Amino acid sequence: MSTMWLEDEHFKYIKPLLENSLVNTKSGICVEIGTFYGGSSVAISNVIRKYGAHLYTFQDPNCNKCNETLTNKSWQKLSRYVKNNPDKEHFVNGYDFNKLISVLKDYNNVTLMLEKSPPKYFFKPIVNFVYIDIFTDYVENLKQILFWLPLLSYNGTLIIGDWSSKNSDPTVQHYIEHNLNDSYEIINVVDCFIAINNRNKLPTSV
After folding, report:
1. Residue 152 has pLDDT above 90, yes or no
2. How far apart, in whole angstroms, are the C-alpha atoms of residue 98 and residue 88?
3. Are 194 and 162 in contact (CB under 8 A)?
4. Out of 71-80, 99-108, 134-143, which region has the weakest mean confidence (pLDDT)?
5. Domains of the chain: residue spans and CATH
6. CA dist 168 to 34, 39, 114, 140, 177, Å?
């Protein structure tokens, strides 16, 4: 998934939606759920730089991806620790934080958030673009949509990889087609990717 974005043809379908979300913005905010090794983060970063936008990418630092001493810290301290100690070993159960840091360290328009999503705290009330491509579970995908969609700006876009659609009933697509209000436009992007565009200039609710 996320590691393949630099070579993945899916991005050519997603890129125009990302750019459209940032048109007429001076300092847009983008959010990614599921950094993994930063492939999609880099692809998004390269596109949004010309718009002066910033990406906040969320990676869950749960205990099977990070050693115990790190998971006991808050995400602010954890982010600072990993950034300031790139040579330390952060490799547990097959996940290598060193590789992630080496990928993102030179991208000044990307902030790594070592925090679960939905986060307990998020300091930007309005976002222009949200990309979610991590969960294969219907309930988890729905949780992400219900949290992030109300934060979407006018003309903002949320894209979700609805991989649960391959093996679940109901699907995320079925939910959004039957439960979202008319201010949202639903776009089938490619494969299991679904885009939701906010067409309401006023604050919206799901």
Report:
1. yes
2. 8
3. yes
4. 71-80
5. 2-198 (3.40.50.150)
6. 21, 27, 29, 12, 16
Please give the pLDDT value at position 166. Answer: 56
120-158: b (≥16 Cβ within 10 Å) or e: eebeeeebbbbbbbbbeebeebbebbebbbebbbbbbbb
- d(CA 137, CA 205) in angstroms, rounded, equals 23
Residue 144 backbone class (left: φ over 0; alpha: ψ -120 to 50; beta: rest): alpha
Residue of 159, 129, 148 whose CA lies nearest to 23: 129
Query: What is the C-alpha separation between 123 and 182, in angstroms, rounded?
Result: 28
Is the predicted pLDDT of residue 195 greater than 50, yes or no?
Answer: yes
Query: Rounded to the nearest 10 degrees, how much is the dihedral formed by the CA atoms of 148, 151, 154, 160?
Result: -10
Strands 110-114, 54-59: parallel, antiparallel or unpaired by DSSP?
A: parallel
Q: What token pair was written down for 206?
A: 């799901």
Residue with tokens 């949780």: 143
Q: For residue 173, give the nearest of 155, 196, 150, 152 by alpha carbon.
A: 196
DSSP state letter for 100: H
For residue 184, the SS3 value is strand
Distance CA 190, CA 169 (A): 20
Centre a 10 Å sphere on the Cβ of residue 169 and count the other Cβ atoms it contains. Answer: 8
